[in-house]
Amino acid sequence: MKQNIKDLSINEGANKLELDIMDIPSSCVVVICDGKAKLRELPPFGEYKIVTHQGKVKRMRREEGEEF
């Protein structure tokens, strides 16, 4: 299953991030760091880990699984 990855643009003049909720997945996470915003769709089963270092996002890792 391909993960839905989308880089979002922040309006620097107004310092705003605008999202149309009709255009994004029903289950997702938006992470903002250093003026960059990224949207990731959450898996139906599993975990999404956001790894930080010195107060900045370094990595976003998806771990999927399902109950047996």
What attributes characterize this protein structure?
68 residues; mainly beta; 3-stranded antiparallel beta sheet; two-stranded antiparallel ribbon; 0% helix; flat
What does this structure look like?
This protein is mainly beta and 68 residues long. It has one domain. It is 0% helix and 49% strand. The chain contains no helices and five strands. The strands form two sheets. Strands 1-3-2 form a three-stranded antiparallel beta sheet, with no helix packed on it. Strands 4-5 form a two-stranded antiparallel ribbon. A hairpin with a 2-residue loop joins strand 2 (28-33) and strand 3. The protein starts with a strand and ends with a strand. The mean pLDDT is 83.
Per DSSP E runs of 2 or more residues, the count of β-strands stands at: 5
Low-confidence stretches: none
* 3D shape: flat
Return the domain count. Answer: 1
How would you spell out the order of helices and strands?
Answer: EEEEE
List the total number of helices: 0
Mean pLDDT: 83
The largest sheet is: 3 strands, antiparallel
Fold topology:
Blueprint: E1 5-8, E2 28-33, E3 36-41, E4 46-53, E5 56-64
Antiparallel strand pairs: 1-3, 2-3, 4-5
